[in-house]
Write the structure tokens for this entry.
Amino acid sequence: MALKNFQKKMIQESYAKIRKIDGTHPFKESVHGSFVSYRVRYRGRGRISYFNFPLAKEMGLISSDHPHVMSRSLESALLDTFSIQIINEYDMTHGTKIDPNDVKPNQYMATRYLQLQHPSKIGITSGDGRSIWNGVVRHRGKVWDVSSCGTGATCLSPATAINNKYFRTGDPAVSYGCGHSTVSEGLVDVLFSEILTKNRIDTERVLCVIAYPKGLGTTVRVGKNLLRPSHFFNHLKQGQYLRLKDVADYYIQRQVQNGDWKIPKGQNQYLYLRDRMVETFADIAAKFEAHYIFCWLDWDGDNVLADGGIIDFGSVRQFGLYYHEYKFDDAERWSTNIKEQRGKARYTVQTFIQLVDYLISGKRKPIHSFRNHRSLKRFDRLLEWRLKEELLWKVGFNEPQIKFLMGFANKHVDQLLKSHSYLEQIKSREGVHQVADGQNCNILSNTRKLLLELPGAMVDLEPLDQQAFLKILGSHHSQYESFPKTRALRQHIQKFQKSYIKLVQKTSDNQGRSSAIILANLRQRAQQINHPERITGDSLCLVVEEILKKRSSFSFEQLEQLILHFVNEQILNPDFKPSKAWREAVRPPIFSRRFYRRILKLVSDYREGL
């Protein structure tokens, strides 16, 4: 009876907070010359394919007791607000017929930022190529940015810059430049963002996915600050001091407003900005490298948020192994590889050092004059420190134990990291070869499997012989005979185990518990952190393909529960504390168990892939 009464209430609900998202955004008033304004029109024939109820509750868009039911009134509010398409330059110059009743009263912005794909390397022509910013949501002292991908071809896409002409939205002659997105992209974004966020990797998140005929879609994305480093860098490259200052002031104000930053009284806010960027990019470079996340960091600062969160999952991957020679083929250029990301993160920090100096002095010095800056040396120290912390986490130590070992057993941690790094990079003799979207080299070792099995295999802290060790270490690309039996490999196997044993003993002595108990705890945590059925970029794309094949047979509620259960099984963080909204969201499954087993098999089959 209570549910029926609530459903009746939903029919009458106007969802006023959703409908208030109307293109109004403080960035437009704060940073002039940093965006292009577009009128928008309602885009018909849309249906809500996915809605993130827990996230909507966190943002205050729906009530905390709202059931996970897509009522007509809720769908109407979402479509009225987000099912839109820009009226672009092509429409205006070609006199595209548009019903005046479909045109929204406010203009929406496509923001300008630096992008390496553009002929202009200073950000004059680049920015949001198929996205617009819908507005902001304020709730309980927090401010959220809301943007949509797939809303039409803007003048800031690479296609317009390269071809020097405007494109009709949906033009089949271009791909990225046509302004469209797909439901498939949206669902990949949903799964990736929710899984990574719950596993200690910050990302933008997906509020909803709108489906249109022919597989097209709009993905509505949110974050507490969706500015990228590239939103700063274009003004820096162009020598636009006032615009750069406006962006920096706006960004700092938002970080303080959301409680993410607390600038000490008397400290220069720009120096604080610089120092936080040092910490942020050391942290994400370490996490990406430690957890095999390929994010294509580059000099333009385009593929990551300024707060370190992942954005635009089109080129993002989570590898099953440390594929350090994988590169993505982007037609005109090759991407960086996962080992090069730390250098790109360092260069991003160097650019922030340059721009902060510019903001304070009023003079723009060349970037190379900051290559030996003390903040870069601090970045190097923090990166190594964070790499060691992340490795200890993967071994299975908890945060108090990690803090102790970093302070009182650092030489053993150093050796563990050095040997682990050697072991995880052992590659196949066949060398680099072509893969579907680039090039790669197979890896012989799976150190996640090693860290998972070692606590149970190392009885009484006795080291394993080389053959037993390599049997555990081997990936699906290898057998014992595949490994090169070199002196260096033998030494690193010995040093890795010796350091591992020393760290267990140190922890045992510090906590007054037996080594057997410490090993048992490590085993329990390592089994979750290094769970073998871990998604990769390949498996996630295949899972979404299978979901879309069966989409017509799923109700909205069945698809939502399928996604929630899939995400829940991929939470490999033993310290994850689910919110009340998340606990209530994951209900008993109402989808086909047979189909669910099929997609879980895809995860298993591709668990060591790209």
Summary: The CA atoms of residues 249 and 270 lie 9 Å apart. The chain has four domains: 2-176, 229-382, 396-529, 537-605.
